[in-house]
Amino acid sequence: MRLERLVFVPPGVCSIGLAGLDCSNPEALLVDRYEVTRGEWQAHLSRTLDTARGPGALVWDRWAEDSETLPATFMTQAEAMEFASQEGMRLLTQREWLRTSAGTRAQPWPWGTSPARSVANTLDLGLQGPLGVGTFEAGATPSGIYDLIGNAREWVTVESGGNEASGLAAAMGGSWLSHQAPLFDWDPTSGLSLAALEVDSRHRSVDLGFRLSESAVEYLVQAAPAWGTSPSTKARVIAVGRRWGRPAAELLRDLSGEGPLAINWLLEGAEQ
Predict the structure, then answer these.
(1) What is the pTM of this model?
(2) Domain containing 112: what range?
(3) Same domain, 205 and 237
(4) Nearest Cα residue to 237 out of 247, 245, 227
(5) pLDDT digits (tens, 9 = 90+) for 156-172
(6) pLDDT in the model for residue 166
C-alpha cells in the first residue's frame, strides 16, 4: 500500500535565503519517503507496450535483477509524469521540493543546519553508483524523507510567477555523481543559488529519477475507497495515521464523517 510510504507535510510558511524565495505550501501535501525504485519502474514498464518504451530501454534492460531497491533513473520528465499519473499522484513542483527539503525553518540541509559526513550518497563517498533508497538514515529530513541530497537527482515541475505550472523542468538535489552541496546558498555578489539544474524536459541521465507527491486532500479522497475494510488494513492505516500525528488531525476531521471508513482510521491513529 503506497499510503504507508507517504509523509504528511502540513501547510507551512518557508522563505529561503536573504532573497526571501517563497517556498511555502498553502495546502497539505503527501510526499513519498523514497525515490521511485527500479523495481517499481520495471513493473510499470511491464504494463506498457514495448513500442512506448523508447530509448530509455537501452539503459533499463541492462539493470541487474537484484537492483530493485535502487532509484529508477533515465526517464524523461513526461515519462516520470506518466508513471505518477498511473499511481494517482504527480511530481513535486520546485517550490514544494524546497519546502519538503528545507522545512519551515529553511534549513540549508535536509537533516539540519550544518553539513555532515556520510549522510548521503554523493561523489564525496566515492561509491561510484546508486544505493538502495533510504540507505542513509542520518540524511533524512525530520519527517523521514530520504535521499533529497545524493543517490539520484529528481525531476520537478517549475511554476510561473503566479504559482501556475509553466511547462519548464528542473532536476533538484544531488546524486552519486555530484559533490555534496546545500539545498541553497547565498552570495552577496551572485545572489541565491539552489540545488537545481535547469534541464530540458526531454533530458535523460543515469542519475536523474523522481519521487511522487500529491495534494493530501485530493489523494485521500481518490485513493481511500480502494483500501478496503479488512481488519489487517485497518491496523495498517491506523499505524500511518499515528505516524502522521497531530499535524494531520484537523484535515482528517474535515474529511471524515461521510467519507470512506479508512479516513476515520487515519484520524484515529493521528489522535493517539
Answers:
(1) 0.94
(2) 2-216
(3) no
(4) 227
(5) 999 865 555 556 789 99
(6) 55
